[in-house]
Amino acid sequence: MIRERFAPSPTGLLHLGHAYSAAVAWTSASARGGRFLLRIEDIDSERCRTEFEQAIYEDLRWLGINWLPPVVRQSDRLPAYALALQKLIDLGICYPCRCSRKDIRQSLSAPQENRLGESSLSYEVYPGICRNRSMRDKTDGDAVRLDLNKAFDCLGGREAVRKLKWLETGPNRDGEQRVDPEFLESIHGDIVLARKFIGTSYHLACVVDDDEQKITCVTRGMDLIDSTPVHRLLQELLRISPPVWHHHELVRDHNGRRLAKRDDARSIRRYREDGYSATEVFELAGLPLSKNFGESIGDA
Ligand code: GLU
Question: Which residues of 81-105 are buried (b: 16+ CB within 10 A; e: fewer)?
């Protein structure tokens, strides 16, 4: 059974890019008799707002996108992340980190535009200041990082890591992919598994929840493609079998820039208020819809 998901963060109103992403995943599930699930990625309590979560439900319904309940809300799942984190800690591959965001200017959460204007990553690799600290010395104000080299050793070394595969079906990198330890090292470094006071991070929560929701295909934008080897590595460490990934093209504005939530003029809500129909919104997003689009494949 194919299971796809849409996993927005309620940090703003959904825009054409979200409509596109949700519809690609919905259509892929529906075409193969599968299921489409919804997950609200709301671990960042400072940026996430209830009204944006309500707007997600409202906008998706208006677009004709239905999902199989229950909706997973990450803020309800902190114990599951703590359990997964503990498994990684027990492997002896984690360390507490007290460096502030400002100090290291590293992006610790999901989607930020990078130098290519594409990826979610900032490409500033943590220099390992706290690497020799022990988990026994962790305080509440510390984050937890994955010691990449120890993680590689735990899986049998770099050559073993290089054999970790996954299947990508997206337009840009179709076919079998493999984890490249040097890419992980140079692009991600010792990733944050748990942000201070939050107890998890985008990467950890995403991997744990895709497993919990039994997702067989992760459909999401190209901006997240570089996160995939991190997720594949975490899956291996946590003994989770990998899904297939499909990273689709991004919807861009007339200047070729990817759409961002801060660009309120392009929110789906705004189009709706301006009298557009859902079909017209999908046309604007550049997505031809199948005839059965909107037929129920869930109970929402
Ligand atoms: N929450 C992320 C976003 O809103 C998506 C993460 C994912 O699909 O893995 O962009």
Answer: beebbeebbebebbbbbebeeeebe
For a substitution probing ligand 1, which of 72, 224, 262 has the most ligand atoms within 8 Å of its CB? 224
Summarised one tens digit per residue, pLDDT across range 168-216 is: 998 888 899 999 999 999 999 999 999 999 999 999 999 999 999 999 9
DSSP 8-class letter at 273: H
DSSP for 24-43 reads HHHHHHHHTT-EEEEEE---
- Residue 219 CA to ligand 1 centre (angstroms): 10
User: Beta strands 143-146 and 192-194: pairing type?
Assistant: antiparallel
b/e for 180-193, b at 16 or more Cβ within 10 A?
ebeebeebbbbbbb
The preferred substitution site among 202, 207, 230, 234 for testing ligand 1, maximizing ligand atoms within 8 Å of CB, is 202
Write the DSSP symbol of residue 109: S
User: What tokens appear for 140 in the block?
Assistant: 């509440």
| 9 within ligand 1 shell (Cβ under 6 A) | yes
- d(C-alpha 98, C-alpha 133), whole Å: 10
Number of the ligand 1 atom closest to the C-alpha atom of 223? 10
Output the pTM of the full model.
0.91
